[in-house]
């Protein structure tokens, strides 16, 4: 999503939601964020699960030394011990090999996802071992640049939504989805705004 798209979306969101209209002048528009699409992004998603950004970056640096070209056949061909030595756990190696196997077998196509609907993308990604709905929705938002995604399982999003709406507690994922239905067709930008709000909540 470009800055111009975010500006347009935030104007429409502020018109649709008085709480966004109240907070927007204090914290401003969220910055644009995006990620590459394709097999390598799914591999790096596996690497980054449940570890810090710094640790994931260090591991990916070692992986890139072992696998200068990060694609499905290379992952299938490399010895598991080489990936273990790079810092991946055996469980993550299992997920990475499963991802590569699915790509090579044609049961999953990272490059083909952009031709599918949002629901079809989520179904395809969550069919892989090691990938849940949150990972699928993040890929939709930042790699495929889909404008109307709300990853309600994200804790920071729900905390921010509760604060924005001046609730004493954070909403459940189901409640959060219902609370932002009127943000359509810009729920991805609304999510960016909530992350932005979480880090810079006005007093």
TrEMBL record:
GO terms for molecular function: alkylated DNA binding; DNA-3-methyladenine glycosylase activity; DNA-7-methylguanine glycosylase activity. One of its GO terms (cellular component) is cytoplasm. It comes from Vreelandella songnenensis. Pfam families: HhH-GPD. Its EC number is 3.2.2.21. SUPFAM superfamilies: DNA-glycosylase (SSF48150). It catalyses: Hydrolysis of alkylated DNA, releasing 3-methyladenine, 3-methylguanine, 7-methylguanine and 7-methyladenine. GO terms for biological process: base-excision repair, AP site formation; DNA alkylation repair. It comes from the Bacteria. Residues 47-202 form the HhH-GPD domain. Keywords: DNA damage, DNA repair. This is DNA-3-methyladenine glycosylase II. InterPro entries: Alkylbase_DNA_Glycosylase/TA (IPR051912), DNA_glycosylase (IPR011257), HhH-GPD_domain (IPR003265).
């Amino acid at each position: 999503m470009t800055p111009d798209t975010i500006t347009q979306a935030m104007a429409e969101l502020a018109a649709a939601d008085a709480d966004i209209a109240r907070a927007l002048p204090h914290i401003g528009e969220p910055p644009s964020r995006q990620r590459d699409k394709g097999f390598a992004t799914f591999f790096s998603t596996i690497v980054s699960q449940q570890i810090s950004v710094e640790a994931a970056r260090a591991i990916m640096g070692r992986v890139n030394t072992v696998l200068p070209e990060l694609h499905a056949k290379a992952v299938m061909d490399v010895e598991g011990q080489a990936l273990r030595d790079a810092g991946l756990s055996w469980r993550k190696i299992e997920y990475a090999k499963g991802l590569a196997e699915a790509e090579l077998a044609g049961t999953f196509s990272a490059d083909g996802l952009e031709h599918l609907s949002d629901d079809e993308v989520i179904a395809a990604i969550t069919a892989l071992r090691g990938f849940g709905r949150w990972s699928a929705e993040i890929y939709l938002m930042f790699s495929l640049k889909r404008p109307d995604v709300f990853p309600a399982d994200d804790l920071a999003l729900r905390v921010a939504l509760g604060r924005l709406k001046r609730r004493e507690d954070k909403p459940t994922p189901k409640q959060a989805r219902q609370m932002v239905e009127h943000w359509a067709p810009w729920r991805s930008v609304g999510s960016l705004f909530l992350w932005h709000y979480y880090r810079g909540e006005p007093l």
